[in-house]
Amino acid sequence: MSNEAFPDILRNPAVSIAAMLLILAGGCGTTPTGVPVSPSGSASVGVTAGPMLGYAWDSTASGLRPIYGVPGAAEFGSPQYAGMGYSNASVCMQKSYALFTGTKGQTFLAQLPAGTPVTITAQSGAKEQIALSPSCSAALLYAQDSAGAVLITGLPAAPQVQTMELPSSGSLTAAAVSDAGMVLAAFGQPGGEIAIDVLSSKSYSTVTNVATLAGMTFIASAAAPQNESAVIADGSKGTVWLASNLTSAVSLQPIAGTEQGVSQPSAIAASADGRWLTIANLRGTSLMRIDLTGQTSITQTACRCAAANLRPLSGNSTFLLSDPSSGPAWVFNGDAVTPRTLFIPGVRSVTQGAAQ
User: Fold this and answer.
1) Contact present, 36 and 117 (Cβ < 8 Å)
2) Contact 233, 211 (CB under 8 A)
3) 37: buried, middle or exposed (CB in 10 Å: 19+, 13-18, 0-12)?
4) What is the per-residue pLDDT for 33?
5) What is the Cα–Cα distance from 259 to 138, expressed in whole angstroms?
6) β-bridge mates for residue 140, sequence order
7) What's the mean pLDDT when you consider all of the chain?
């Protein structure tokens, strides 16, 4: 880190003494460890030593911003892989890799913190969304209203790519994928409801219908990985369901509803070990943590934020609630004994820094 960087840190009241000590302990140098190959050119990616909370895709910079530090003492770094023709990215902190979609329809895989992106498919599109499975061994690339999707298994060491033809049961709005490559797909219906279908390589069937989809995710199960289970949230009805036995006779069980504090849910996410479920609400108490084993009671955490996303960060149940391009960001630390929300200062431009 250069001497000129220290005044910027000291001017930022959100960076604590603990954060400064972490930065000093990590060293003052940056070490480029890879030269990524982009669809439109090449660039260097610098790596700063020290604790890493995670990454966030910055749509305004078209790059991946590292989040340095720990919950409660973190800051966004300069965008990596920016200006290289990428349109989106999704990061797996468990296995330290990122998937990028290119503006020309390619998909790239890069080992983090600064690996060289490798093309793994040219079959996707520039507007594809990326869904990762609970352990990040599988990914699904899909676009809304599309008739097909791209399934990638064997991540990250030996990716295998296959195309999936989606049933013509409506307009695709969202999707999720399991570690085994099973897919949950949400299709808008003419009457306004959303049909949730489960798809495999051989067949598909309807799991349930919801009035408004507020999120769906597969649940990791280390004890029985072959038993696929997922959680589905109905935003209009304020109900969250556990869908079990997806490979046979589907069982639907309510996990939480308005009586437990669910109020216009906007997103849901499961912990890496499959024990905890986090629900983001637009009304009432902002965030809820539910123990899917039933051993502890529901916790509720307030946040002066609009939690539109729950993107996994380092840890078992820690999530980024907002994007760096939207200003100051918030983190939900569900790994703490008492879950809490934490603040990350917004990204400052070079012009802003020079003006102070």
Assistant:
1) yes
2) no
3) middle
4) 28
5) 35
6) 131, 151
7) 82
pLDDT for residue 226 is more than 60: no
pLDDT of residue 347: 80
Per-residue model confidence (pLDDT) at position 18: 41
Q: How far apart are CA 34 and CA 116, in angstroms?
A: 6
Residue 117 contacts residue 37 (beta carbons within 8 Å) = yes
Give the residue from 200, 211, 215 showing the smallest Cα distance to 255.
Answer: 215
Residue type, 66: P
Output the CA–CA distances (angstroms, integers) from residue 251 to 106, 112, 226, 351, in the order listed: 38, 39, 16, 56
The pTM for the full model equals: 0.82
Residue type at position 8: D
Query: Rounded to an integer, what is the distance from CA 211 to the centroid of its chain?
Result: 24
Distance of CA 68 to the CA centre of its chain: 17
CA 55 – CA 210 distance, rounded (Å): 32
Q: What proportion of the chain, given as a percentage, has pLDDT over 90?
A: 58
Q: Pick from 178, 177, 174, 132: which is nearest to 156 by CA? A: 132
SS3 per-residue string spanning 293-352: CCCCCCEEECCCCCCCCCEECCCCCEEECCCHHHCCEEEEECCCCCCEEEEECCCCCHHH
Whether 354 shows a pLDDT value over 50: the answer reads: no
What phi and psi values does residue 244 have, to the nearest 5 degrees? -115, 165
Closest CA to 38 of 98, 116, 114: 116
CB atoms within 10 A of CB 237: 16
**Which pLDDT belongs to residue 246?**
87
**186: which 2 tokens?**
């949400």
Largest alpha-carbon pair distance within the chain?
A: 63
Report the pLDDT value the prediction gives residue 222, as an integer from 0 to 100. 59
